[in-house]
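User: Here's a chain of 208 residues. Predict its fold as tokens.
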Amino acid sequence: MNSELDEHLVIRLARPEDSQEILDIYSPYVRDTTLTFVSTIPTVAEIESKMKQIQIRYPYLVCTSNERVIGFAYANEVRPHEAYRWNAELSIYLDESYHRRGIATALYTALFQILRTQGFVNLYAVITIPNEPSIALHRHFGFTEIGVHQATGYKFGGWRDVVWMHHRIEDAADPGEHGIPTPISKMHKNDLETALSLATAFLKGVSS
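Assistant: Prediction complete.
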């Protein structure tokens, strides 16, 4: 990696003003790939609205290089029923020029630490296949494949298969004793800063 950029790589919480750069990253995935089943490129306002809704309960993170967003990752609701409130579905997207540089690993490192501290238990990834890089990333973080939904999404003139992957946080708190996950808006500032700082330090270690 370019050393000038490496010195300014940061993992942090997403902000509303990041919405345009997030959209710039996401748009090619919508327009050119089946990695997302979204077919219409959203507006900046829609990106910002979704971010604010997610951040009521879940982490929404970005990686920046020289203060420019080059990747983002977030957790979100799996299903609305109360029994599923300890679960979260993860999503991650990178600027295409920053693949294979440790960015995804750093974002997930922070995301996992925050979700664990919040009290989430089950994490899910829903991946259009084939997509070996994404499957490999999730396996690295302890995800296992739990099933394939065959021909479940139709995009670009063809039916697409989707694999569901699952990771259970083994040291997660017993919800019967500790209650529901803490919304990220109510997390201790020190817990958030620690998770983000460790992920940023990981990036600097990779690039050194």
